[in-house]
Amino acid sequence: IFLPNSGNKEITWMMLEAGAETDVVNSVGRTAAQMAAFVGQHDCVTVINNFFPRERLDYYTKPQGLDKEPKLPVKLAGPLHKIITTTNMHPVKIVLLVKENPLLAEVEALQKCYRVLDLICEKCMKQKDMNEVLAMKMHYISCIFQKCIAFLQEREDKLDGFIKSLLKGREKDGFPVYQEKLIRESIRKFPYCEATLLQQLVRSIAPVEI
Asked: Are residues 45 and 72 in the same domain?
């Protein structure tokens, strides 16, 4: 276990990349993220909770079992890992990360990526040390990728059209209705109804009218 009490995000990230375990607990039963939260180092908590080792993604770039082809082409692993580990989860930010990489901004590439994200989500929920936060994040990004595919297939303005839809506010108060509906839809589609995190999100959002 490591203690990110100094509040240095870069050092925290370096330690994670070097193999520091995030789920090990200390003598009082707390993980590194819990200790960081306890002393108010919330930036470090964000880094820890968003960390996803590259080797876990690289697993999908090799054929498994009876598969003749890998589920994820090697060339997509880097761009996808960049999105997976981002701490800015605004949908426009994610679409911009897709748009800026020509390898990723194609229907077939996004289809492969979102299927891998769904597999990672499933693994996060079914492993011994369940990680609901990471599972929800993978599902959320998968939903955005699927919307990207729809815009690439159906709209002439493609991803620019998606970004415009996300940013457009309604006339009376500028509230981004499309963006709100997208986020709510992704939460509603999360396939693990028993998840504590999902239930908390639903309780918080359901009573609030758009």
From this structure: no
Residue 4 lies in a domain: no
CB atoms within 10 A of CB 14: 11
Instruction: Tell me the residue range of the domain where 28 lies.
Output: 9-50
Same domain, 29 and 92: no
How many CB atoms lie under 10 A from the CB of residue 117?
Answer: 26
Q: In order along the chain (210 residues), what is the average pLDDT of each group of 10 residues?
A: 62 81 79 81 81 91 92 97 92 97 97 98 87 93 98 96 97 95 96 93 90
Residues 44 and 78 in one domain: no
Looking at residue 100, its amino acid is E
Cβ-contact 145, 117 below 8 angstroms? yes
Residue with tokens 């080792």: 53
Q: Are residues 130 and 28 both part of a single domain?
A: no
Chain centroid, CA 78 distance in Å:
15
Six token digits for residue 203: 């309780």
pTM of the model: 0.84
